[in-house]
Amino acid sequence: MNGMVIIVNEILLYTKQGCPLCEEAKIWIELLKDDYILEFREIDIQSDETLHDKYALEIPVVSVNGEELMFPQLSEVEIRQRLHD
């Protein structure tokens, strides 16, 4: 092994059906897959009462390596700034 460390970034997208802003955030994340190693999961807040109570008025919420981003700070640039090369 050559000692190279591969960093996998974890991105969670908290969303619900019929959310156009959530779809936009998902497109940003898909575009980032070309530049970063990502583990991406989309989580429907309607499938969990606790998540729904927490994020119902906040979605989309993107968690990048444990740091949550919400509108208005949520953007492709903000996500990119929190990713590890």
From TrEMBL:
InterPro entries: Glutaredoxin-like (IPR008554), Glutaredoxin-like_YDR286C (IPR052565), Thioredoxin-like_sf (IPR036249). This is Glutaredoxin-like domain. It comes from Salimicrobium halophilum. The lineage of its organism: Bacteria, Bacillati, Bacillota, Bacilli, Bacillales.
